[in-house]
Amino acid sequence: QVQLVESGGGLVQAGGSLRLSCAASGSIFSINRMGWSRQAPGKQRELVARIANSGSTFYADSVKGRFTISRDNAKNTVYLQMNSLKPEDTAVYYCNAERLGYPGTYWGQGTQVTVSS
Fold first, then answer.
1. CA angle 8-64-79, nearest 5°?
2. What CA–CA distance (Å, rounded) separates 6 from 8?
3. What are phi and psi of 83, to 5 degrees?
4. Three-state DSSP class for 41?
5. Alpha-carbon span 23 to 76, nearest angstrom
6. How far is CA 52 from the centre of its chain?
7. Distance CA 86, CA 100 (A)
8. Is 44 exposed, middle or buried (0-12, 13-18, 19+ CB in 10 A)?
9. How far apart (Å, rounded) are the C-alpha atoms in residues 63 and 82?
10. pLDDT, tens digit, 9 for 90 and up, residues 70-104
11. How far apart are CA 49 and CA 22, in angstroms?
């Protein structure tokens, strides 16, 4: 099992920045990919960014050039630096993790990000 705890959400004005953190615990040795997804009211959850153990990254088109995902293996933590925030970035952001050789995805409890115009 893997436990994920997010932090860093909040209220920010458009154009501002926030950094989300996600600390992983449990069977972290088998985690091969971690990422961030978000879900706005009335919308489906969407993948925002993902980082693999190799360091390769993926970004949704809507956040390319504004968001940066990174990880600190020593702290078992993944970060999402969000710059130039827009009101449409308002959502609950969820950390997720996948384990090599195990089905399914682990999810954190979510953290609210609200961007005011």
1. 25
2. 7
3. -115, 165
4. coil
5. 6
6. 13
7. 35
8. exposed
9. 9
10. 999 888 999 999 999 999 999 999 999 999 888 89
11. 13
- Amino acid identity of residue 83, one-letter, is N
Tokens of 68: 């940066």
**116: three-class secondary structure by DSSP:** strand
Of 5, 11, 15, 4, give the one whose Cα is nearest residue 83: 15
Residue 67 has pLDDT above 90, yes or no: yes
Structure tokens, 4: 């994920």
pLDDT tens sequence across 29-64: 889 999 999 999 999 999 999 999 999 999 999 999
Give which of 101, 65, 108, 56 is closest to 86, Cα–Cα: 65
Residue 16, amino acid: G
Q: What does the chain come to in residues?
A: 117
Burial 68-103 (b: 16+ CB within 10 A, else e): bbebeeeebbbbbebeebeeebbbbbbbbbbbeeee
pLDDT at 113: 98
